[in-house]
Design brief:
The complex is a heterodimer of chains A (115) and B (152). Chain A has 115 residues and is an alpha/beta fold. Chain A has a single domain, classed as Udp-n-acetylmuramoylalanyl-d-glutamate--2,6- Diaminopimelate Ligase, Chain: A, domain 1 (3-Layer(aba) Sandwich), CATH 3.40.1390. In chain A, strands 1-5-4-3-2 form a five-stranded mixed beta sheet, covered by helices on one side. The longest helix of chain B has 21 residues. The chains are: A alpha/beta (115), B alpha+beta (152). At the A-B interface, helix 2 and helix 3 of A face helix 1, helix 2 and helix 5 of B.
């Protein structure tokens, strides 16, 4: 599933306009611990998190993640959004909590990397 | 470590890192990653380098006043010396243990301070050395070999 398609299908808010809307989402990862994401997420993953701090952009950029879905209706601050725009990181917003979002993505065929 | 010496291409870089500036955190690591990509280093190795560099960079941003990466890249390996002026680590052995952290609540709220940083680095690298002096700073040095050497 492509990023743009995923955002539309699940009604995610586009917190940044995705430059990579045509990029294929390859699996997913859910965590609020940045060190965990750094160590275990794979490039091309969609990352489901409650974190909104500017560091999520650095993590997503370094790991070349497809998109970050910020859950539970939490809003990143302007600094986070600005940096995401600069770095071309796709930030999406979901009203539902993490469990729900991850479950629906999984159901739609976006799997994790079992380890 | 790896053979050959005179003919080895060598890149040396100094990358300054500012303490407390989270908006720039990760930039030094990204630079290193991009250079390795250009050099054609394998994605699996780059992944390990990115983990070790990012965790080291975050440690400096989160805890130290300032620091820098001294990076040496040859055809066979990358060596990074992350040196900071900061509070130092009281007990390096404890800091190397998974789950141990001295992070204040603010840092934990940002998703850090799970006690995974140094253990993550150790798992990602082929060689590591930490020297720290309380009230002065920390020197973390690590090496990752390009020729396979799957570690962790």
């Amino acid at each position: 599933m492509k990023i743009g398609e995923m955002a539309e299908r699940f009604g995610f808010e586009l917190l940044t306009t995705p430059r990579n809307a045509e990029m294929e989402v390859e699996g997913g990862y859910a965590s609020d611990l940045l060190s965990d994401v750094i160590a275990r997420a794979e490039s091309g993953n969609v990352w489901v998190t409650t974190q909104t701090h500017v560091n999520i952009v650095a993590v997503a950029s370094l790991k070349e993640l497809a998109a970050v879905v910020i859950v539970s209706g939490r809003k990143p601050d302007e600094e986070t959004i600005d940096l995401a725009k600069t770095k071309g990181v796709c930030l999406l917003g979901a009203q539902s909590p993490a469990y729900e979002v991850a479950g629906r993505l999984y159901e739609a065929g976006i799997r994790g990397s079992p380890k | 470590m790896s053979g050959g010496s005179d003919s080895e291409e060598k890149i040396h870089m100094q990358l300054p890192i500012r303490g407390g500036d989270f908006s720039k955190a990760g930039e030094a690591s990204s630079k290193i990653k991009n250079i390795l990509k250009q050099l054609g280093v394998s994605p699996a190795v780059i992944k390990r380098v990115a983990i070790a560099c990012f965790e080291s960079e975050i440690n400096i941003v989160a805890y130290a006043n300032k620091g820098q990466f001294s990076v040496d890249i040859t055809t066979g390996e990358i060596r990074v010396l992350a040196k900071d002026e900061g509070p130092g680590i009281e007990c390096v052995e404890m800091a190397m243990m998974e789950g141990f952290s001295t992070a204040p609540p603010e840092l934990r709220e940002m998703g850090f301070g799970a006690g995974m940083g140094l253990p993550n680095i150790k798992k990602a690298v082929d060689w590591i050395k930490i020297e720290s002096q309380v009230g002065v700073g920390t020197e973390l040095e690590f090496k990752i070999l390009f020729g396979g050497g799957e570690n962790g």
